[in-house]
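Worked problem 6 (solution included).
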Amino acid sequence: MALNKTLIEDKIEVVGDHKNIQIRTATVIKEGGKELTRSFSRKIIVCVTTVKNADDSFTHTETDVSSESDEVKGIAGVVWTTPVKNAKKAANELALTD
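Solution. The predicted structure is:
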């Protein structure tokens, strides 16, 4: 019988003030329709990343979710509002100032 490997985004959560999106992906191995193994991996995506430049200014980059699933893109589009992104930028600047 042939083995079949499937990747499933089985849990998507929105966490924290800055609406980080946590994605758990299950890797399922089946043989003849019977599940043999299931393992998990996780990733977190944030709405904005920030770098501090040599002149002490900041460069903010909004996260590109175009390669994510339609479900994750939809969630990001709803929860990553302008006020949330602006708050994340301010928090990033504060963290990089220390």
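Discussion: The chain has one domain: 3-97.
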